Amino acid sequence: MKSIEDLPVSGHRVLLRADLNVPRDLSDPEHPRITDDGRIRASLPTIQKLIDRGARVVIVAHLGRPKGADYAERAAGGPSLRPVAARLGELLGRPVAFATDVVGADAARVVAQLTDGDVAMLENVRFEPAETSKDDGQRAGLGGRLAALAQLYVGDGFGAMHRRHASVFDLPALLPHAAGYLVLAEVAVLRRLTQDPARPYVVVLGGAKPSDKLAVIENLLDKADRLLIVGGMSYTFLKACGHEVGHSLLEADKIPQVTAVLAEAARRGVEIVLPVDLVGATGFAPDAEHEVFPVTAFPADRESLDMGPATRVLLAEKLADAQTVFWNGPAGVFEFPAFAAGTRAVAAAISRVSGLTVVGGGDSAAAVRKLGFSDDAFTHISTGGGASLEYLEGRELPGLAALEDAG
Ligand code: ADP
Ligand code: MG
Fold first, then answer.
1. Pocket lining: 364 vs ligand 1, CB cutoff 6 Å
2. Tens place of pLDDT for every residue, the chain, 407 residues?
3. Burial 343-361 (b: 16+ CB within 10 A, else e)
4. Which positions are annotated as active-site residues?
5. How far lies 102's CA from each of 43, 71, 142, 325, 390, in Å?
6. Which of the two ends of the chain, N or C, has the fewest CB atoms closer than 10 A to its terminal CB?
7. Which bound ligand lies closest to the C-alpha atom of 209?
8. Nearest to residue 381, comparing CAs of 393, 363, 399?
9. Does the beta carbon of 382 sit less than 6 angstroms from any atom of ligand 1?
10. How many CB atoms lie within 10 A of CB 401?
């Protein structure tokens, strides 16, 4: 894979695909607040290098999951990348020009006005339905229109590299390209996790939904020694084991697949650890009344927003002898301080491990920073959640493969 040193960027327009999909507080939808700018900061070394070398930098990125049949509907519904461009400008200490469309008249105008060392950002690339289309022709069309804006391409959006999207997968083939510093750093750490990790190798998986991560679990069964299942996805596992989970997050249609995963893990001798107690709240709210219940006696009218104290102790034990740890997905609704204790306990236990420890995922990274852990409490805080997981499974990431092609 080429790095940006190998590209003649000076005086040229460089499309930089970055991952700036930052978590936001949406309680005031008119003024969404960036709650963790880690992904913007992680993109700075590459952007700064391109500026220093006199490139004209055009940043392509996505934010959230815009909904709507066409560009107009999506652009109307948002979210716009404009606040992210403003934050990037603050961190760089220089203005970042913002195009109000992706490949339209405003993008052409903004790009034409750049001089050497300038930075511009295009509007949310997922406003273009072709970005995520399954249709190769549609994606190639958008790739071509993006390619027309620049002469070179740098791929640095690690968190999106598992996606076969136009700006990640199709575009690099159309321009001379290289990988940015963030991608090179992420791959270097993840390679250490896949090449003969020191054992026991413990993987902690949490977050919202099992459907996001069931395939990962199946693939990790022949890599990890122990899987700790926490957070929103744990309730489907508990339900599959016959427990009442009340109104907690549940994907009932995934129960057969979860049951199969549990059987396969048992067959292979991979230990799967589930919560033994849960914090049951009266509703999904920061100030909801709550009590701790054992998983064997969870009330049908409660909703779990965190794991309980006995589980915090159990997981700390299960992490104490680990030599290698990968963690993705918060253990509770850490955004509400009353339900952050489980996530804090997982972070603390992992921070005590002396071997290689990697935390991956946008919300997981935001959680550890919000809970006051410094970045050096872990070997590495990855910007990628899904991308890191797919790399660990041994799957080829389309965005990485596209950068590896000669170009
Ligand atoms: P990441 O971005 O790190 O990959 P995910 O996006 O998979 O993580 O999951 C993060 C979300 O999961 C957080 O917003 C958190 O509130 C939610 N979550 C975790 N535990 C629970 C739970 N018990 N109930 C509901 N949501 C939960
Ligand atoms: Mg997330």
1. yes
2. 999 999 999 999 999 999 999 999 888 877 889 999 999 999 999 999 999 999 999 999 999 999 999 999 999 999 999 999 999 999 999 999 999 999 999 999 999 999 999 999 999 999 999 999 999 999 999 999 999 999 999 999 999 999 999 999 999 999 999 999 999 999 999 998 888 899 999 999 999 877 878 888 888 898 899 999 999 999 999 999 999 999 999 999 999 999 999 999 999 999 999 999 999 999 999 999 999 999 999 999 999 999 999 999 999 999 999 999 999 999 999 999 999 999 999 999 999 999 999 999 888 998 999 999 998 999 999 999 889 989 988 889 999 999 997 65
3. bbbbbbbbbebebbbbbbb
4. 39, 209, 362, 386
5. 20, 10, 10, 39, 28
6. N
7. 1
8. 363
9. no
10. 13
Q: How far apart are CA 219 and CA 237, in angstroms?
A: 17
372: left (phi over 0), alpha (psi -120 to 50) or beta: left
Ligand nearest to the CA of 207: 1
| Residue of 155, 140, 135 lying closest to 61 (CA atoms) | 155
Q: State which amino acid sits at residue 95.
A: P
User: Looking at ligand 1, which atom is closest to the CA of residue 304?
Assistant: 23
Task: Name the token pair of 88.
Answer: 């990037």
Nearest to residue 180, comparing CAs of 198, 200, 160, 194? 160
- Residues 341, 272, 187, 49, Cα dihedral to 10°: -10
* CB count in 10 Å sphere of residue 171: 28
Query: 143: Cβ below 6 Å to ligand 1?
Result: no
The pocket of ion ligand 2, defined by CB under 5 A, consists of 362-363
Q: Where are the beta strands (DSSP E) in 1-156?
A: 13-17, 24-25, 33-34, 56-60, 97-98, 119-121, 152-155
Residues sharing a CB contact under 8 Å with residue 211, sequence separation 6 or more, in sequence order: 251, 254
Q: Distance (Å, rounded) from C-alpha 325 to C-alpha 358? A: 6
- Distance from C-alpha of 267 to C-alpha of 6, rounded to nearest angstrom: 49
- Whether 258 and 214 have beta carbons less than 8 Å apart is answered as yes
| Count of Cβ atoms closer than 10 Å to residue 141 Cβ | 17
117 vs 83, 96, 120, CA distance in Å?
21, 11, 10
Task: Measure the CA–CA gap between 96 and 21, rounded to whole angstroms.
Answer: 17
